[in-house]
Amino acid sequence: MIRKTRLFTPGPTPLLPAAQFAMAAADIHHRTPEFRALYLRVLSQLKEFVGTKNDVIILSSSGTGAMEAAVSNLTSPGDRVLVLSAGKFGERWTALAKAFGCEVDLVSEPYGKTFDLDKVKAALKLETRAVFVQANETSTGARHDMEALAKLLKDQKSEALLIVDGITGLGTTHLDMDATGIDVLIGGSQKAVMIPPGLSYLAVSQRAWDRMEATYNPRYYFDLRKERKNAKNGESAYTPAVALIAALGAALDWIAAQAATPENPAGSLAEGRKKLVDNAETISAMTRAAVEALGFKLFSDAPGAAATAVYAPEGVDSGVIVKELKSRFAAVITNGQGEMKGQIFRIAHLGFFDYMDTIALIGALEQVVVKSLPQLGAKFGDGLIAAQKVYVERTTKA
């Protein structure tokens, strides 16, 4: 039989066709009126997508570049910061903060867990300048409660900036930056906005812009103030990733159109984002039900909708499941990261995934389980029936 490669990875994710067409047609120079109009439109769309009236900055980098920019622009050597870490990307915040000379206080939870707010409260100090956290820990599939964390900082009257890696949280969680009280919210292009890697973006509160005037860590390419100044005129400080910006505009148009009505055929980005999140919530719930029906155990205690992390059976390397899905069905999922490599596998749901993709992946996983993992005791149909029931329940409610 022929095999069609399908990505079920939490980045890069499947590409939106409209974005691919926009990239192919993006043969424009970046210092022209045509590009300036495109750039200003995309910056405005991003504000609506993340739920803010504050300025948004686009960088030609992966999400880690935006994470570094947040640290370098908002801290000075010797600043005390608090990192909340429960996975590979929480550890990245720690490494970045130390690289720029910060004194790091750490609230650490085991992979797959979320944070005890009492521990966070105890770790906050009067001199804490920033709190760094993931909205969704991609390495474990765990989702952290940003509203509860923001409320804690407000209740404690903390001067700390809340800096959130929303790279896989945006588009899979109902994150609204201004309403929640986030100071910096970071996103990436190869996630829920369904375009290739290479762009990151940061929405920055006025409080964070004010902080930048008093910090003095070194920065040059990632100087957010320089980018903000140029963005007002529809330009970036340095050569932008023109084709990716065109693709991002097309993707945001598509997301808005998911909420189109006869009265408003262009749709709404805020409402389209909600539908994107609801889609991820539905297919992640279908997947969780299916893997449990097949005899697997979920890894995270607080599973989000970006990706489902699943324990491999005892005595089985999770890489075997990853390799068999790819070799037999060209379905690409991911192994665990860091200390969980070989112990878990991860199936993504963010962005351009739908019901049919999910059913196909569950069917392929059933084939792997029945042939290669008889110890689970599963039979054909167990996972698919469980997923179908979840789909019916959720779509009927909707």
Helix percentage range: 40-55%
The CATH architecture of the largest domain? 3-Layer(aba) Sandwich
The coarse silhouette is globular
Q: How many beta strands in the DSSP annotation? A: 15
Beta content comes to 15-25%
Biggest sheet: strand arrangement: 2-10-9-8-5-3-4
Largest sheet: 7 strands, mixed
Q: List the uncertain runs.
A: none
What is the CATH class designation of the largest domain? Alpha Beta
CATH topology of the largest domain: Aspartate Aminotransferase, domain 2
Average pLDDT taken over every residue:
97
Per CATH, the superfamily of the largest domain is Type I PLP-dependent aspartate aminotransferase-like (Major domain)
Cofactor: pyridoxal 5'-phosphate
Modified residues (N6-(pyridoxal phosphate)lysine): 191
Family: Belongs to the class-V pyridoxal-phosphate-dependent aminotransferase family.
Protein name: Aspartate aminotransferase-like enzyme
Q: What does this molecule look like?
A:
- This is Aspartate aminotransferase-like enzyme.
- Belongs to the class-V pyridoxal-phosphate-dependent aminotransferase family.
- The chain is α/β, with parallel strands linked by helices.
- It folds into 2 domains: about 5-10 and about 270-395, Aspartate Aminotransferase, domain 1 (Alpha-Beta Complex), CATH 3.90.1150.10; about 15-255, Type I PLP-dependent aspartate aminotransferase-like (Major domain) (Aspartate Aminotransferase, domain 2, 3-Layer(aba) Sandwich), CATH 3.40.640.10.
- It has helices at about 15-25, 35-50, 65-75, 90-100, 115-125, 145-155, 175-180, 205-210, 225-230, 240-255, 270-295, 320-330, 355-370, 380-395; strands at about 5, 55-60, 80-85, 105-110, 130-135, 135, 140-145, 160-165, 185-190, 200-205, 295-300, 305-310, 330, 335, 345-350.
- The strands form 4 sheets. A 7-stranded mixed sheet has the order 2-10-9-8-5-3-4, with helices on both faces.
